[in-house]
Write a structure and sequence with these properties.
Oligomer: single chain
Number of strands: 0
Structural class: mainly alpha
Number of domains: 1
Helix content: over 70%
Order of helices and strands: HH
Distance between the termini: 13 Å
Strand content: under 5%
Length: 39
C-alpha cells in the first residue's frame, strides 16, 4: 500500500506529459489493470 501514493504521483506526471488521446489509452490499460490487482 505504500507504493500506491508514489505510483499515483508518477501517473499524474506521466499524464501531464502525454496527450489526452494517449491518456485515454493508458487509463484503460494501466488503471484497469491496477483496479483488477486491487480487487
Amino acid at each position: 500500500m505504500e507504493a500506491k501514493p508514489e505510483i499515483r504521483e508518477k501517473y499524474q506526471q506521466v499524464i501531464s506529459s502525454i496527450l489526452k488521446e494517449d491518456l485515454v489509452y493508458i487509463d484503460e490499460s494501466g488503471i484497469e489493470m491496477s483496479i483488477c490487482k486491487d480487487r
